[in-house]
Amino acid sequence: MSDPTENSEFDLSAPPYGVVVRGEFVSVKDGYDFMDDVFKNNECPWCHSHNWDLILRATEIEQDQEDGYVVYTTEHYVDVGNEDGITARPPAQPFTYPMFLVICDTCGFTRTHSLLSLQRWKERRNAVDEGNRLSGEE
Ligand SMILES: [Zn+2]
How far is the CA of 48 from the centre of ligand 1 (A)? Predict the structure, then answer.
């Protein structure tokens, strides 16, 4: 897969291009590295494109969400009533899931992947890098 971060005019390996997961900053660059390392098939099932956009951080809905996870909201309303029946239909609370989006650049087909899996992958990669660094020092 071509790496869109290579020719970017922005440093996609540093804030604000990423999200904090379990206290660790995970960058857009990490996301693309994860896809390169883990995905065995990166062809879009609908249009056969191999170019994907990646969105790690996408919410303005709840300002107090420190990590800006992708948020799914529903338009449904919750019935609130008394013995006489329904009296109000306030909107349901939005739910937040620690997910990131992978979007086909050509047809827009969108997949979600767990940010926790991405963060665990980065943790394992960092441990391997640290091991290599230490063995290189001997
Ligand atoms: Zn597609």
Answer: 6
| pLDDT single digits (tens) 87-120 | 776 666 666 667 888 999 999 999 989 889 999 9
Q: CA 16, 20, 26, 27: dihedral to nearest 10 degrees?
A: -10
Cα of 39 from ligand 1 centre, angstroms: 16
**In the chain, domain spans:** 18-137
Copy the structure tokens of residue 128. 């391997």
Q: How far is the CA of 84 from the centre of ligand 1 (A)?
A: 51
23, 115 Cβ separation under 8 angstroms: no
Query: Rounded mean pLDDT of the chain?
Result: 79
Helices (H), the chain: 28-38, 115-137
pTM for this one? Answer: 0.71
